[in-house]
Structure formats: C-alpha cells, structure tokens
Automatic annotation (TrEMBL):
The keyword Calcium does not apply. Keywords: 4Fe-4S, Iron, Iron-sulfur, Metal-binding, Repeat, Signal. It comes from Azospirillum oleiclasticum. This is Hydrogenase 2 operon protein HybA. It comes from the Bacteria. The gene is hybA. Residues 1-29 form the signal peptide.
Amino acid sequence: MALSRRNFLRKAATGGAAAAAAACTAVTAAPEANALQRPPKPMPPDAVGLLYDSTLCIGCKACMTACKESNGLPKEINADAQPWNEGTWDSPVELSAKTFNIIKCFTDGAASEKDREKDGFAFIKRQCMHCADPSCVSVCPVSAMTKNATTGIVNYNPDACIGCRYCVLSCPFGVPKYDYDDPFGKIGKCELCSHRLAESKLPACADVCPTGATLFGRSEDLRKEAHRRVALKAGERTEHPRGDIGGTVGGQRPGHEATVHAVYQPHIYGETELGGTQCLAVSAVPFDKLNLPTNVPEYGYPTLSEGIQHTLYAGMVGPAAVFAGLAWLAHRNAKDHPEE
Ligand code: SF4
Ligand code: SF4
Ligand code: SF4
C-alpha cells in the first residue's frame, strides 16, 4: 500500500498522540500519577510573607492606596465600571498590571453582619501568594520570574521578560497581569515590596494596616500565629500583632486588642494549597465564598509538569524513540516506493 505524505504524517501524528496519551493516562490515573511527579520544593527556612485575617479587616483599603503609592502605580477605574463607580469603594474591581493588591467584599442576602456567611459580609485581600513551588517561575522560558532562595519572594524582571504571558496562564490564583497599555507589554504583580524590604521598611500594605489584618513576617511565624487565631473562641479577648510579627523590620509596634466576634474556619488558606504559599489567610467565612480557589491539590502543578518533562526527556530516550519511529516510517516509505 502506498504511503502518501498525508498517511505518513497521520501515522507519525498517531504515534506522537499515543505517546502523549500514555503520558496523560499516567498523570491522571492517580495515585500512579505520583510516579511521574518530582518532589515538591520546600519553602526556604527564612521565607517571608503575609498573614491576612479577614475578621480583622475593616475594608478601609489603606493597604491598596499604600501599595499603589509604594509601587508608583496610577489610580485605575475599570473601563466597564465608568462612570458610575469612579471614586466608590468598588473601584478598581480586579487585580491588574496596575493594581497589585485588592480588597474585595463578599456579601450574602441582607449583608447585615460582618464575617457571617448567611446574610453577612466579609473582606478578602488578593495579591501574589508567593507560592513555595510557583507555576509562574516554572513556566517562564527566560527566567523573568524568579524565586529568591533566601526569602522565597517571587520577583519579576521586566528586562528579561519577552511578554509571552505563560506566567499569566499558569498561575492558579490569577495573579500576574499583562499590561496591554505598555508598548513593551510587561507583567504586573506584587513582589512583596522587595524594594522596601531592601531598605529595611515593611511591605507597604502591612505598614499601614491599622488593625493588623495584614501582617508581615517569617512564613513559619505567620503560620504559628494563624494556628493561634483559628483556635480562638468567639468572645475571647486577645491582642493581635501589627506590622512585622518578629519586629525585625520596622520595629515592634503596639498590638491591636480585639474581642473575637466570629468563629474562624478551621483551615488556614495557603498552608497546604498547591504545595503551600508564603502568604496565608484566615477567615470566619468559607474560603470558596471569598472566591479563593479551593478545589486545588496539595502539590504545586510544577511537580507534575516538570516531572513529566524530565521523565520524557530523561537521557533523551523519549525524543530518540520518536525520532527512531519517524526514521523507520520514512525508510519504509522510501523502500516501498523508490520511484517517488
Ligand atoms: S489596611 Fe488592613 S484593615 Fe484596611 S483594608 Fe487593608 S487589610 Fe483591611
Ligand atoms: S500566586 Fe501566581 S504569580 Fe504568585 S507566586 Fe504563585 S504562581 Fe506565581
Ligand atoms: S507587599 Fe507591597 S506590592 Fe505586595 S500587596 Fe503589599 S504593598 Fe502591594
């Protein structure tokens, strides 16, 4: 039977698809999928981050203003929200290349009581989570996204960026945003105010937060503080640290004394999600209501994607097998039809 160019390509594609399908089957057929995963990357021991406590947040948005000021970002009114919400609490409504930090509000029914799921409302702060094993770093082909080996902060280098937007697509939290207004098309996202930390200043959002709802510190210290909070009982009087939990950046500040008015969810968001994140959140309202992704695995996606790549490309056996298959098909075609 003549092997036309079309048939040749079809067979070659079928072979490639079979190889890809085998890899996909291995990945999706948990728990065998774990065989292809590489080990998760641990958080650096001195990783730093933020702890956001929704029950302490009063929605003042001082953190948003300070974030814009410290990062030289302009005021932003979403195009589809003009002019009705210009200057209102809701504007802007999403993270963008010019808004690295946003406070959003969940409401239900009459929204008459704070931190209540039914007929209540609650705030949530969104910014880069500084993942322990970040997808954005894994997919960036030119290492414009990097994770600091000491602090764990995920930084962005606009000079290295080629604007491919892989990081935008890969982030499970929808954080990096592409700036379509910039002729060079750069990415915008929170870098945990690395420029301020370099001057021994607190990240701006934690610096200005009046209640300690946004708290900076070593991730491990923040994790312990988060556990302390979720164990608190409604009606208990307690003092919440403000600024830097360790007091090493910006010094010790007087705490914020408050009565626990709502029972915390028994989970710390970011402790396990996607392999853990250096920014954590606690809340009295379920995290899915606050629009945080909750149906996510406890491993970072790079453990799978890099595991598969490294398995397929180990010793170049996979590509060599594909090449050998193609060469065999070409050879057979040439032998069967020497005149073509
Ligand atoms: S500054 Fe603090 S209290 Fe005010 S909105 Fe931001 S996190 Fe909430
Ligand atoms: S939240 Fe997104 S942008 Fe931030 S480190 Fe994780 S993957 Fe990267
Ligand atoms: S750490 Fe800095 S850049 Fe990140 S949200 Fe806070 S103020 Fe904005």
